[in-house]
Amino acid sequence: MPAHTRPKPLVWTDDRVRAWQTDYHTYRETEKQRRGGQRVDPIDAYTSVPRPSPVMVWTPAHTRLFLEEARRHRLFALYQLIALRGLRRGEACGLRWQEVDLDGHTLTVNWQLVQLAWDVHEGTPKTDASVRTIALDTDTARVLRVHRQQQLQERLAMGEAWTDTGFVFTQPDGSRLHPQHVSDQFLWLAYLAGLPPIRLHDLRHGAASLMLAAGVEMKVVQATLGHTSSAFTADTYTSVYPQVATAAAEKSAALLFGKENHAQPGQVISLRS
Asked: I need a labelling partner for 19 at 20 to 30 A (CA). Which of 100, 121, 163, 205 fits?
């Protein structure tokens, strides 16, 4: 049997977005004709059209627009935490308030929610390296404070019906989240933002490329993501972060030299245009 090769992450460059958008509109029209003019589920089309790689990464501009769209969602803090700090889905869903230090701007990953088939189980992270303490930037700490206040309001509204699980991210009644629900909501938000599709796990890849583009050392990125070695981190992102870094550099130069309107790498091409 041939050895399994992990697909390399690719960045959603403007050319790739345009090519995918053409395929997306063609797919929807073809499906509509095949179904005799009946409506085509936009999310089905959104997830069915092939991508350049199974693992795609948004540019910083894409991620910013996603977070702007997600800001109105009750799980906004969860998505920002994954987008900026690179938590795995199960780690974010399994995070408890006792592991979050908002004054110290840190959180500790000790648990995760694991989805097996449709059942959800609580467990420890998959490797020793996955158990880690992560620094929080000021804005993410602020977003988590706002989220905590919203959760307290939900608790008051539910009264005795509230389930005290201690999780940071819960259902409106306090019970734990189902990881698939978090992924489904992510796809809707990405679609509504007019963004090219990625998996929720790819938002974690984007966090890594953002850190590397910002000049964070590989060893720090490895520790933040919970990888077992910096070699694995480097092998995964060597092909990604130069493109992201170039886009960031072009944007910075455009601002400096007054050419922002002529150089907009990562500009979003709306799916509904």
From this structure: 205
Alpha carbons 192 and 69: distance in angstroms, whole number? 7
Q: What pLDDT is stored for residue 264 in this prediction?
A: 46
Altogether, the residues listed in the chain come to a count of: 273
Give dist(CA 97, CA 133) in Å, integer. Answer: 14
- In contact, 55 and 181? CB cutoff 8 Å: no
Global pTM reads 0.87
φ/ψ of 116, rounded to 5, equals -115, 110
Taking a C-beta distance cutoff of 8 angstroms, is the pair 270, 194 a contact? yes
Is 63 in contact with 57 (CB distance < 8 Å)?
A: no
Q: Across the strands, what pairs with 12?
A: none
Q: What is the pLDDT of residues 181-232, one digit of tens each?
A: 999 999 999 999 999 999 999 999 889 888 887 778 889 999 999 999 988 8
Q: What is the pLDDT of residue 213?
A: 78
Q: What was the pLDDT predicted at 58?
A: 92
Taking alpha carbons only, the member of 99, 80, 57, 31 closest to residue 243 is 57
Tokens (6 digits) for 123: 């467990």
- DSSP per residue over 115-176, as a string? EETTEEEEE--SSGGGSEEEE--HHHHHHHHHHHHHHHHHHHHHGGG-----BSSB-TTSPB
The residue behind tokens 């993410």 is 140
Is residue 199 within 8 A of residue 51, CB to CB? The reply is: no
Q: What is the pLDDT of residue 266?
A: 42
Q: Residue 265: which pLDDT band, with cuts at 50, 70 and 90?
A: very low
Closest C-alpha among 241, 184, 235 to residue 207: 241
